[in-house]
């Protein structure tokens, strides 16, 4: 069974680029979700194996969803602008933080590292 990654990103081109990158690497994709509402609904229907979240979505910040996923032991990668990364790393030390734009190789490396058994 393929690893399922939830993608929450409100920038259309970025969202589909992320999804293409993950699909080409063999992952199953849930999304992309442009809003927090649809991303939360998707998580309620089926818990993802990993979530890649942009912080500012079309209908609000994804911080509550990030915390819920982390509380449910779902690894989270926060994908945001460089101005947000320090604050995000401090607030969510158990999450991985990547700066946009993130090259595909770095993104896939982060996914592999997060999913690697400890």
Spell out the blueprint of helices and strands:
Layout: E1 4-8, H1 12-24, E2 28-33, H2 36-45, E3 50-54, E4 56-57, E5 60-61, H3 63-71, E6 76-80, H4 85-91, E7 96-99, H5 104-115
Parallel strand pairs: 1-2, 1-3, 3-6, 6-7
Antiparallel strand pairs: 4-5
Could you list some keywords that capture this structure?
alpha/beta; Rossmann fold
Describe what this molecule looks like in 3D.
- It is built from 5 helices and 7 strands.
- The strands form 2 sheets. It has a 5-stranded parallel sheet with strand order 2-1-3-6-7, with helices on both faces. Strands 4-5 form a two-stranded antiparallel sheet.
- The model has no long low-confidence stretch (mean pLDDT 93).
- The longest helix is centred in the N-terminal third of the chain and has 13 residues.
- The protein has a domain of 82 residues: Response regulator (Rossmann fold, 3-Layer(aba) Sandwich).
């Amino acid at each position: 069974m393929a690893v399922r990654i939830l993608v929450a990103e409100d920038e259309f081109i970025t969202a589909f680029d992320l999804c293409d990158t993950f699909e080409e690497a063999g992952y199953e994709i849930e999304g992309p979700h442009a809003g927090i509402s649809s991303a939360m609904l998707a998580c309620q229907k089926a818990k993802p194996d990993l979530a890649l979240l942009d912080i500012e979505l079309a209908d609000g910040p994804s911080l509550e969803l990030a915390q819920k996923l982390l509380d449910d032991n779902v690894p989270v990668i926060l994908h945001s602008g460089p101005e947000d990364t320090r604050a995000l790393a401090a607030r969510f030390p158990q999450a991985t933080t990547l700066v946009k734009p993130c090259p595909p190789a770095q993104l896939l490396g982060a996914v592999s590292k997060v999913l690697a058994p400890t």
